[in-house]
């Protein structure tokens, strides 16, 4: 029934009952209405109360009739009539139960999505026993308001209302990260004691600066003698520094200023510990590196104490991040790679669930161990689990191709013996037509079709190359899975072979050399240093130096010193040379797509849902 129709029906009831009131007992009608109200017959109760509330009298019976009429209207889904009646009660009886009337008007305005009016009425409610219910109504009223400007205006009128501040913060956090007003969030958090999770432990704001100091912590080993300088020029650390310098120039062209400070972690003249103790590094906004174990431990402690973000550019060791929320890995951790690889195996290698896992040593073993654990939980059987040093990687190929002597089937042997016995019985002089070697045959030690797939839990290309060569030479089909880190421009394994054996990879900071940004970088490097950049296998190089400084320099510019404020709220962000970086769930790069070689190109493949 429409509102207007119900309104006219109520008027008819009022006139009808008013005409009878002179002949009937008002108290009786009230009791009849109250009885209907208690039985939740609200529409009928509303008719009884309407007649009494319309009387031009001032007594409790009339006031309560109007009160119950309003509640009955609300219970009968006629909130507008209820609201109008409460307004009439306030006007006719301004000193009668003001808290009750204002409470109901605050509630009904909240229901209608009028937070401003709701707050105005609730502000007039002085009864402390209603405080808890008032807060619930306020939150309900604010939930309907999505305009930050409207809420800011309301907060100006009700500056003590933390619920409004909380709703403003909530709406700011719902915006895309680059549009979020971090300073306003911090102001609201401080003024109203809100708990706003910015994803940064112990950090209250992310200051923006005109120039960011970025330290590049590498074992340069600078010395003054010319022979040493020549060696340094040819070192991977110098090439990484050259890439970082080009990145600084690139950022400057975009209006982003970075002060790149190389720090030699092997400089015997001034130890890293001394630089830290004397406060020389306190002004840094970001640390890239270091890469040696002792330096990592030293700088990690410094980074945590001074709350300076550090990015390890080479390692997949998750222990670097374990106790320091300001420590990041440029690459995915061993554990992240293992989880992603295991998921691929479970989806794609189900025909033959026997597996071999190879790793290069102590640093790779966590990846191998977790991979083994995860697939064996899914009924895979890891029949080979071996550590193979990079300089001994040929062992993998040999293991796949080694043969052994096996006795022939006894029936075949009996037939061969019977044949020779027959010749000898016939008097043939050359009856020994079979030699001792004829009674055995050579076969692969790893029998054909006995192994479903091989997982290389290492980024050393020699292990993958050896495994691929062995797989390629076998008569059966063995699937190959590894991380893509060894797929460099200067790799020894051919794309044709990778495609031929249907190899699959978990993408780890893979660089697509057809990307325009890569072409631009290579041209910059050639113009500056008169040579092409070299892509290293596991060490740093110009590509890494350039990608990290450009990508994280932009993050500093966009989000301030604690760029994780933005990283923690986005699924992924674009890298400069790499496709994407993803740090939403962890401090290691979780962007790990699946990849295959197709048409002599590395392509990202769709994940199975």
UniProtKB/TrEMBL annotation:
Signal sequence extent: 1-23
InterPro entries in UniProt: Peripla_BP_I, TPR-like_helical_dom_sf
Domain of life: Bacteria
Keyword Signal listed: yes
Gene3D superfamilies in UniProt: 3.40.50.2300, Tetratricopeptide repeat domain
UniProt KW keywords: Signal
Coiled coil: none
Protein name, UniProt field: ABC-type branched-chain amino acid transport system, substrate-binding protein
């Amino acid at each position: 029934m429409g509102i207007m129709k119900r309104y006219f029906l109520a008027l008819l009831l009022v006139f009808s009952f008013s005409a009878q009131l002179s002949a009937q007992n008002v108290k009786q009608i009230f009791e009849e209405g109250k009885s209907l109200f208690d039985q939740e017959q609200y529409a009928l109760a509303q008719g009884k109360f309407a007649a009494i509330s319309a009387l031009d009298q001032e007594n409790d019976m009339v006031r309560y009739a109007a009160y119950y009429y309003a509640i009955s209207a609300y219970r009968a889904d006629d909130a507008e009539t209820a609201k109008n009646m409460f307004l009439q009660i306030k006007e006719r009886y301004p000193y009668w139960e003001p808290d009750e009337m204002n409470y109901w008007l605050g509630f009904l305005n909240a229901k209608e999505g009028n937070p401003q009016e709701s707050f105005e009425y609730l502000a007039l409610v002085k009864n402390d026993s209603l405080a808890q219910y008032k807060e619930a109504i306020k939150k309900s009223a604010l939930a309907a308001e999505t305009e930050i400007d409207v809420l800011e205006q309301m907060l100006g009128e009700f500056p003590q209302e933390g619920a409004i501040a909380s709703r403003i913060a909530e709406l700011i956090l719902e915006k895309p990260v680059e549009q979020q007003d971090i300073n306003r969030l911090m102001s609201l958090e401080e003024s109203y004691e809100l708990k706003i999770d910015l994803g940064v432990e112990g950090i209250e704001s992310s200051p923006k600066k005109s120039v960011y100091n970025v330290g590049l912590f590498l074992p340069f080993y600078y010395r003054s003698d010319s022979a040493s300088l020549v060696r340094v020029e040819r070192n991977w650390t110098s090439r990484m520094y050259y890439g970082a310098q080009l990145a600084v120039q690139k950022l400057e062209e975009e209006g982003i200023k970075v002060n790149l400070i190389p720090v030699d972690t092997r400089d015997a003249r001034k130890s890293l510990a001394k630089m830290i103790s004397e406060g020389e590094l306190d002004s840094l906004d970001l640390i890239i590196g270091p890469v040696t174990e002792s330096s990592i431990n030293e700088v990690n402690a410094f980074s945590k104490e001074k709350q300076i973000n550090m990015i390890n550019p080479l390692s997949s060791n998750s222990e670097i991040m374990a106790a320091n929320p300001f420590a990041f890995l440029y690459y995915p951790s061993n554990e992240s790679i293992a989880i992603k690889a295991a998921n691929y195996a479970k989806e794609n290698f189900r025909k033959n669930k026997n597996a071999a896992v190879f790793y290069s040593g102590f640093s790779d073993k966590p990846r191998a161990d977790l991979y083994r654990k995860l697939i064996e939980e899914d009924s895979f059987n890891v029949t080979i689990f071996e550590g193979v040093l990079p300089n001994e990687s040929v062992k993998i190929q040999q293991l796949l191709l080694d043969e052994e002597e096996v006795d022939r089937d006894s029936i075949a042997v009996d037939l061969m013996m019977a044949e020779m016995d027959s010749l000898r019985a016939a008097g043939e002089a050359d009856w020994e037509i079979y030699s001792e070697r004829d009674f055995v045959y050579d076969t692969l030690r790893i029998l054909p079709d006995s192994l479903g797939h091989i997982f290389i839990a290492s980024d050393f290309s020699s292990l993958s190359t050896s495994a691929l060569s062995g797989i390629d030479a076998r008569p059966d089909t063995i699937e190959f899975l590894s991380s893509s880190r060894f797929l460099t421009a200067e790799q020894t394994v051919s794309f044709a072979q990778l495609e031929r054996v249907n190899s699959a990879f978990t993408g780890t900071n893979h660089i697509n050399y057809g990307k325009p940004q890569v072409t631009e970088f290579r041209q910059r490097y050639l113009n500056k240093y008169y040579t092409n950049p070299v892509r290293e296998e596991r060490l740093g190089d110009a590509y890494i130096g350039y990608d990290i400084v450009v990508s994280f320099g932009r993050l500093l510019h966009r989000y301030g010193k604690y760029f994780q404020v933005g990283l923690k709220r986005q699924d992924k962000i674009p890298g400069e040379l790499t496709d994407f970086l993803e740090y939403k769930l962890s401090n290691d790069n979780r962007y790990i797509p699946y990849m295959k070689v197709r048409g002599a190109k590395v392509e990202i493949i769709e994940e199975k849902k």
